[in-house]
Design brief:
The protein is globular and about 90 Å long. It is built from 32 helices and 24 strands. Helices cover 44% and strands 14% of the residues. By secondary structure, the protein is α/β, with parallel strands linked by helices. The chain has two domains: 363 residues, Rossmann fold, CATH 3.40.50; 249 residues, Glycogen Phosphorylase B (Rossmann fold, 3-Layer(aba) Sandwich).
Length: 766
């Protein structure tokens, strides 16, 4: 058709149906499950409006609706033949035949299917997203004879359920619409799963009594955080009220079916739903949760008689003030496996957050360190590097990332070192970057020579931000959701410190940097929005100071999202992973940067710990407090003032922020930020500032030696194999789901089956 694929890719909208790492992890997992040949489904909500588009106006974040379906979505197929009813409100009647949930309001769940292709294995799985539809008799069946027009307009109330994604990352907002969304996806999905299970049993001689005995052998459901926790009481409701199973049998099957992944330890992120809200919206589910809790507490009381405090700590219901349901406790009690997402996080889960539960059933608690799909996060976004690696070690690493260790053989190979530097860097034009087309890993012809990753991104920045970028400067990148625990403020203080050093001694050698900070703040998160404004205010001063010139540039990257990550990550030299130790469950951006030839400056937090274990701590820039140091500092009391008094460069930076140096028109603009840093900084920015700045000096020093830097890059890439989501999914499959991955390549539909069978030795596909 004479169209250019890259141009089309630029036009297509991101499906921004998640907030941060959690949604992106699910997408990587779907890619890996298909590539590993697992019969797996991803279920979620087809939000009409995804995560907001971020605009920066006058340095402030402004949100715009993400109307991602405006031009249609060619990848989805509506499946009205599988539409299902979901019930809300109503009341419970207790009859001789058991409990009945009656007088409910019905919303229909319409599924949309999106294909999920495995990598070169002719396997295609399904992601099924539910959209809310009002039934045609909505508001018309009840004798309100009069207002037909209003009744039709009110259909929106039902359909609002799938209208918009709640934009909070690591924060719980207990709104009724959000609870409706959580139950909506759960109720539709479980009906779908049971329909498919019963169809597989069609014609079997099982009695209704024994039909569900094999359910956990044929169905595994992974709860991605507590957001789908209502699946546990919902499956119990189906088994007990509808299928008439005895409670104990239903509970046994339910527990064997579910497993729960915990994704955060921040208390403000844990879901705690008010009992009276659940009672209004889902009255039968509240009764079931009470029954689950009663039996759970009876069991604990039998093991620990008279330990009232333990009962209080372990209850699913939190008393005091408004009664709430602790959804994490519900997930732990209702699942056969519970896991964290990095070794250090899983330890914290076991020994701190849920220690009473782990003491009771230690075998239930596991670790599954997160991973990323190398298909998107290397082949697709960085074809130049992917091709260079393939030339050295072959193409098989794409499906078995552990093979990257073979690159260790080339760490002293001068030609390879130069090539790796060139893919990232500047030196004119070189390898193509038009995706797998034009590579031995893909199709036919090498595309025209194009710029390397940094040059290409520098041109993008100059076009979008009208700032002149030196492509040979160090690209120092901090992209992720804006949150106090991720400590973008500490990075900001470092920018100010570098600025002050240049101003103090302009003649002194300074390793040039382009510092890029990007990410969205939840619309209601005041401090996160102030942090964005501060970064932009500092950038304004730094970028327009003639004394600084090309030595230092700071840019706030607008509207950070997957498609932008695919551009910035391959161009990055230094990856910032600087959360306070013990706060970032895993992180996955850290892994993407490592795989794409950036070096990491980071704390011993999340998966950074395992990255250091794989690559060697001497090949990362690790600094700052460990979890033990944070605990100790909490014990003796964190006093920000003492760091301010002791560190002149920190004092200077804070005084500039406080005194209006970066906001001359509104000198006290940042008083809330400064006040927080001194008096209620839970994440102890000042405590790590000195170690951070010193560590950054070591980074600059190494960057001067291009060869030594690149050798460290190669060692990092060679150590990145563990962080493939293929490895993560194999562990879930083996330890939790009890299914076997298959590397069988299904024959393509255009090949007759018998021909295929002739070609394969001893009857197994290749």
């Amino acid at each position: 058709l004479g169209l250019d694929m890259e141009e089309l890719e630029e036009i297509e909208e991101d499906a921004g149906l998640g907030n941060g790492g959690l949604g992106r992890l699910a997408a990587c997992f779907l890619d890996s499950m298909a590539t590993l040949g697992l019969a797996a489904y991803g279920y979620g909500i087809r939000y009409e409006y995804g995560i907001f588009n971020q605009k920066i106006r006058d340095g402030w974040q402004v949100e715009e609706a993400d109307d991602w379906l405006r031009h249609g979505n060619p990848w989805e197929k509506a499946r009205p033949e599988y539409m299902l009813p979901v019930h809300f409100y109503g009341r419970v009647e207790h009859t001789a035949a058991g409990a009945k949930w009656v007088d409910t309001q019905v919303v229909l769940a319409l599924p949309y299917d999106t294909p999920v292709p495995g990598y070169m294995n002719n396997t295609v799985n399904t992601m099924r997203l539910w959209s809310a539809r009002a039934p045609n008799d909505f508001n018309l069946r009840d004798f309100n004879v009069g207002d037909y027009i209003q009744a039709v307009l009110d259909r929106n109330l039902a359909e609002n359920i799938s209208r918009v994604l709640y934009p909070n990352d690591n924060f719980f907002e207990g709104k009724e619409l959000r609870l409706k969304q959580e139950y909506f996806v759960v109720a539709a999905t479980l009906q779908d799963v049971i329909r498919r299970f019963k169809a597989s049993k069609f014609g079997s001689t099982d009695s209704v009594r024994t039909m569900f005995d094999s359910f956990p052998d044929q169905v595994a459901i992974q709860l991605n955080d507590t957001h789908p926790a209502m699946a546990i009481p919902e499956l119990m409701r189906i088994f007990v009220d509808i299928e008439k199973l005895p409670w104990n049998k239903a509970w046994d099957i339910t527990k064997q079916t579910f497993a729960y992944t915990n994704h955060t330890v921040l208390p403000e992120a844990l879901e705690r739903w008010p009992v009276d809200l659940v009672e209004k919206l889902l009255p039968r589910h509240l009764q079931i949760i009470y029954e689950i809790n009663q039996r759970h507490l009876d069991h604990i009381a039998s093991l620990f008689p008279n330990d009232m405090d333990r009962l209080r700590r372990m209850s699913l219901i939190e008393e005091g003030g408004t009664k709430r349901i602790n959804m994490a406790h519900l997930c732990i009690v209702g699942s056969h496996a519970v896991n964290g997402v990095a070794k250090i996080h899983s330890e914290i889960v076991k020994t701190q957050v849920f220690k009473d539960f782990a003491a009771l059933e230690p075998e239930k608690f596991q670790n599954k360190t997160n991973g990323i799909t190398p298909r998107r996060w290397l082949l697709l976004c960085n074809p130049g590097l992917a091709e260079l690696i393939a030339e050295k070690i072959g193409e098989d690493y794409v499906r078995d990332l552990s093979q990257l260790t073979k690159l260790h053989e080339f760490v002293d190979d001068d030609v390879f070192i130069r090539e790796v530097a060139k893919v990232k860097q500047v030196r004119g034009v070189g390898r193509g970057d038009a995706g797998w087309r034009g590579h031995r890993l893909g199709a036919d012809v090498l595309p025209a020579l194009t710029q390397e990753n940094k040059v290409k991104f520098a041109l993008y920045l100059e076009k979008e931000y009208k700032v002149k970028i030196n492509p040979s400067s160090m690209f120092d990148v901090h992209v992720k959701r804006i949150h106090e625990y991720k400590r973008q403020l500490m990075n900001c203080l470092h920018i100010i410190t570098m600025y002050n050093r240049i101003k103090k001694d302009p003649a002194k050698l300074f390793v040039p940097r382009t510092v890029i900070i990007g990410g969205k703040a939840a619309p209601g998160y005041h401090m996160a929005k102030m942090i964005i404004k501060l970064v932009n205010a500092v950038a304004q001063v730094v970028n327009n100071d003639p004394v600084v010139g090309g030595k230092l540039k700071a840019i706030f990257l607008e509207n950070y999202r997957v498609s932008l990550a695919e551009k910035v990550i391959p161009a990055t030299d230094l990856s910032e992973q600087i959360s306070t130790a013990g706060t970032e469950a895993s992180g996955t951006g850290n892994m993407k940067f490592m795989l794409n030839g950036a070096l990491t400056i980071g704390t011993m937090d999340g998966a950074n710990v395992e990255m250091a274990e794989e690559a060697g701590e001497e090949n990362m820039f690790i600094f700052g407090m460990r979890v033990e140091d944070v605990t100790e500092l909490d014990r003796k009391g964190y006093n920000a003032q003492e760091y301010y008094d002791r560190l002149p460069e920190l004092k200077q930076a804070i005084d500039q922020i406080k005194g209006g140096f970066f906001s001359p028109d509104e000198p006290d603009l940042f008083k809330d930020v400064v006040n927080m840093l001194f008096y209620h900084d839970r994440f102890k920015v000042f405590a790590d500032y000195e170690a951070y700045v010193k560590c950054q000096e070591k980074v600059s020093e190494l960057y001067l030696n291009s060869k030594a830097w690149t050798k460290m890059v190669i060692r990092n890439i060679a150590a990145a194999g563990k962080f493939s989501s293929d490895r993560t999914i194999k562990e879930y499959a083996r330890d939790i789901w009890h299914v076997e991955p298959s590397d069988l390549k299904i024959p393509p539909p255009n090949e007759p089956r018998d021909v295929v069978e002739d070609k394969t030795p001893n009857g197994t596909a290749a």
